[in-house]
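G., the chain you wanted modeled:
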Amino acid sequence: MRQEPPHPLPRNTPRSTGTPETEETAAQRNRRLAHIGVAHAQRVLTARYGLASQQEAFELLRQISQQSNIKLHTLADAVLHTAAPDTDAEVWFPGRARYSPPPLPDLAVDESSRTHHGVVLRKALRRVLHITETTMGNVQLSEQGMLRLEKHTGLNREFTEFFAFVRDSTTSCAQSAEQRRQVTVKDVAVADVFDEASRHAILQTGSRAAHSVPLIGRKDRVVGVISSHHAQPLTDFTRAQLSALEEVGTRVGDWLLWHRYTIVLDALEQLHATATATAQGARDIQSE
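Predicted structure as tokens:
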């Protein structure tokens, strides 16, 4: 059963024009948004396994995150959006089939890194920037109804803080995800798609144009977006460039879904086994 975050997730905070006491900075917003999913997962695990405290649940999440080489927020999101295991079940996903990772041609991913989330995203970003002939870009992944910034290059801190979480439709990346198609902004300075706060955050980093590629897995499921940024206004990309970008979006989208339903579910299995053993140990101590 799908479990929703306990509070609505706020939209991007405009560039502050008031006092620090009355308006939330981008850094404050990002810390709060980053904590929401983890905190909710702590509460779910504490109740599900009868853990001693939410701190114990946090330590469990952190331990499995490190052992599985999965980011803490990714593991927490999986806890919240994966149907709970049956009561007293020894394994979370009995009879689950396992598959090899899908191929990633043209990304130059070593055999030893075919299952490594960070490596694949970095290589995918590099491939998109090679096709679009620029050095600035970023990768965002879908999480809790938002796009969360995962990788970037050539972009300054003001940009990365402002776009750390995107929920509005006032960006090309959000429109690309919503419409499941590539979106080109030829000139950020005059494009209607942006609100003024987003426009400022893009222009100040040195980007004058942008192109967003949706990462689309099976059943047209959008799992993220890769965007390139350009120092000068853009003309149209060639048909060959658009085709190559679409190929990257499809391949990487398939790989991300494979990762989510293989590596992340492996981590959930490990979390379930560890939490179950912890809870049983606590019960044994109480019964002595």
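Residues 263-287 form the longest helix (25 residues).

Shout if anything looks off.
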